[in-house]
Amino acid sequence: MSEQWFERDPQWFKRAVFYEIHIRGFFDGNDDGSGDFRGLIDKLDYLEWLGVDCLWLLPMYESPLRDGGYDIANFFAIHPDYGTVEDFREFVEQAHQRGMRVIADLVMNHTSADHPWFQESRADPTGPKSDWYVWSDSDERYQDARIIFIDSEPSNWTFDQQRGQYYWHRFFHHQPDLNFDNPEVQEAMLEVLRFWLDLGLDGFRLDAVPYLFEREGTSGENLPETHEYLKRVRAEVDSRYPDRVLLAEANQWPEDVVEYFGDGDGDECHMAFHFPVMPRMFMALRREDATPIYEILERTPQIPRNAQWGLFLRNHDELTLEMVTDDERDYMYEEYAKDPRMKLNLGIRRRLGPLLDNGRDEAELLHAILFSLPGSPVLYYGDEIGMGDNVYIGDRDGVRTPMQWSGDRNAGFSRADWAQLYLQPLMDPVYGFQAVNVEAQLRTPTSLLRWLQRFVALRKEHPVFGLGTYQPLRAENTRIFAHIRRWEEDVVLCVHNLARSAQAVQLDLAEFAGMVPVEMLGQTAFPPIGELPYLLTLAPRGFFWFQLREGE
Amino acid sequence: MTTLDAPELIRYVTQQRWYGAKTRAVSASEVLDTVVIRSAEPEFALSLVEMRYETGAHDIYQLLYASHEGDVRIDGLAEDPGLARELVSAMRGGLTLQGGEGIVEFRPAEDFSALSRELGSARLVGAEQSNSSIVFDESLILKLFRRLEPGINPELEMLRFLGERGFENIAPLGGWYGYTGGPLGATLGILQEYVSSGIDGWELALDEIATAPERFLDRLRRLGEVTGQMHTLLGSDPSDPAFAPEGPSVESLGLLTATVDEEIARVFFSLPEEDEVLAPILGRGEEVREQLRLLAQAGSTGRIIRTHGDYHLGQTLWAGNDWVILDFEGEPARPLVERRRKRSPLRDVAGMLRSFAYAATASALARGIEPPEDWEDRARERFLAGYFETADPTLLPPGQTAVERMLAVFELEKAVYELRYELDNRPDWVRIPVAGIQRLIETAAEIA
């Protein structure tokens, strides 16, 4: 019954602003030191105020938590720290009542080694689950598949003493890959999807989706069999669950990622993350040169009419540098990860605030670029107040510290004892909770939080940002990233100055001659566009968004 | 019973006054379920009809049919009072009727003796936007909800809650009927006593400002008492989750203030500069925001409870010897779930206080009669005196100062909304919110 709170709208996700939540770190509703669904319910008013349309939850399932919950031990149960399935249902209901949808992470590729399926599979090589995982007598198969977690895993195969065979894992050795060649596994995963959709969930972010199948002589990524299975998943969702969304996590080049949208109007995932554009925004900012952004967008193929890119600045993982060249990676490390502790795998484990040296202009500029690109932006919890990170904590936990609600004890995150907290909130003088918190920023009209709330509202007033076409507007001055978005009668010109100095730019706007650019934040009309190049001057790291209106 | 085909349905529904989506293009229409209310001639039936729009969105409407010898008439409430009488008699009998996808349950309210009477004349009440109402014998009123939203209708919920607890200043609930099934669960209609002798509170205010201003002030004191009693009752039952008073969330005051602050900034940003009426507040946006910040240091917003939700003089009746509070549906343009949300009772109070400002100006504008000087101040004083006498203080912020500050924040919220609305719609009325905002700038300094 949950979908009744919304107008039926099969394209809602194309206009939506997403907000990614680490449940453990958001708010502790039962004073045990860990965030939970009761706590999330308490903070829905805040999220509604912020204006986000869809909440994306990191994994919430029963898990030994050796990989932040991406190691699922029971697909049909909520991790006890977070509450119960009933709490989850209540949360979804309450979010829906406030006009927000909810999607959740789902890992189809693998399970935790603790999952009863794996236990059964390793215990009985002839039993009903014997073939549910990828077993082999040799660790020589599929040698063309790369190792992803190069910092911790020497091989994609691990020997299991109990069964006396190797099992296949694309990620940690405690996360065996399911065998999707087995029809029972395919069916079991559809049952998992149905279970949560029946509870009212609005969709899934499908984790690690390129790796479902293995084939000799291939990289084991983006195989035709994987796409075939995703089409089956999509057909199941479309036939029984209208207005839901499947969001693919495929950290690949755009030309490979578009395959995940499927054929025709789109018959696989509704959305996929655009990974490579992300590091290029940071690169462009540091180099004060828009070329990397222009280039990656040029390299981005058209996508089906009903599909959408998911765009982000930061998320719960490291800032991934898999989709850049070696030179570019060296540059990024050099500029953004001066301390080797900040590196992880092929990436940088830092939050947005510290990456931008706490620069307010930079934060606004990057959000402006993010919000102006074709796709739906995904915000990461805490980045709306410019929270920091803790590089001294292992793996990716440094960017998963408690949300800083106020200057009170435990950052207002929990009433448990300090020592009981799953992670301690930041206390440093720059990003610590005394300096950076929701309460203070709510009260301060000029804060980043208040600015972002206005900016989200502005973007949502203009469907062009979600639905419109993208037309680059390269100027001689390469420090400027300018482009046109167009949808029906709405034409928007976005101009961003990546330089830390003031810049002038001449834009060729001849095709819009006679129209008047009206700056969108302040509704100020600029001089009309003529036949000559249009001259604009921008403040350091400044930007303009104009709506082009017909002249008098 | 024969039902209509899609083009006929679309043609009919889109032409009705209660049809809410006049600007939208309908792509399809479908009868989701039909329940026969009376199978003997003339036959009566009720349908849930879905209108689908080109954008992919949809609405569900309630339609009634009367069929006489195969001749089907949609609604026909005006022509055929028998149809409406049939609905009331189904309530009296507590019928449960089966449809294809769900059931319709008719229920009588307890201890409502008027329901047992035979019904005589029936007339359709005109000029309603989203519902249809039929008055029987000038003593009962049946209200049909047309556009259906999932969930219990707040009007039914509030009347039942207040009635069961002995609140006398409402028109008592007589019965209701609702649908439960596949398409949705929703209240379809309610029956209520019709207060035929009542005078609309707004009209009475305008009349008596001219003829007997002192008498009206006495009535306002009583209205304050009644309002306080209503809130006390609404916050009295911790065992009913829909009504149990709650503590506001930690951020609630911050979120409210930020929202009002943004609205002030937006409205003042675009104020036309030449308008003389705006002179008292022109260029004072920052001052207003500063006052808001001071007021918001109230510390606590008090408890949140179910409230009237759209409280002003137009929602009251003077029934000869006391006030009757009407229309618990909440702000009609807001979604149902939002209208059922708990809020500070002071929001209702602020709504009523703003309504006094409107009455004073309307008297001058519409009737050409200037109210006595200080009338609005005294109206506020009297109403609040009555209110604080009966309202449960544990529902309010602790201490008089905190109450006054919160009240001022809610009044400011309303006045800023009014300012934007009147600028867009009724330039003559702009001076009302202007005066309200001016008053708040000046008094905020005293209470902040």
Outline the fold blueprint.
The complex is a heterodimer of chains A (552) and B (448).
Chain A: H1 12-15, E1 18-21, H2 23-26, H3 37-42, H4 44-50, E2 54-57, E3 61-62, E4 74-78, H5 85-97, E5 101-107, H6 116-123, E6 135-136, E7 157-160, E8 165-168, H7 183-198, E9 203-207, H8 224-240, E10 245-248, H9 254-257, E11 271-273, H10 277-287, H11 291-298, E12 308-312, E13 319-320, H12 326-336, E14 343-344, E15 347-348, H13 352-355, H14 360-372, E16 376-380, H15 438-443, H16 448-461, H17 464-467, E17 469-472, E18 480-487, E19 490-497, E20 503-507, E21 515-519, E22 524-525, E23 534-538, E24 543-550
Parallel strand pairs in A: 1-2, 1-16, 2-5, 5-9, 9-10, 10-11, 11-12, 12-16
Antiparallel strand pairs in A: 3-4, 6-8, 7-8, 13-15, 14-15, 17-18, 18-19, 19-24, 20-23, 21-22, 21-24
Chain B: H1 6-14, E1 26-38, E2 43-53, E3 58-68, E4 71-74, H2 81-93, E5 96-98, E6 102-108, E7 122-125, E8 131-136, E9 140-145, E10 147-148, H3 154-164, E11 173-181, E12 185-193, E13 199-200, H4 201-211, H5 213-234, H6 252-269, H7 285-295, E14 316-318, E15 323-325, H8 336-339, H9 345-367, H10 375-390, H11 400-425, H12 431-447
Antiparallel strand pairs in B: 1-2, 2-3, 3-4, 3-10, 5-6, 6-11, 7-8, 8-9, 9-12, 11-12, 13-14, 14-15
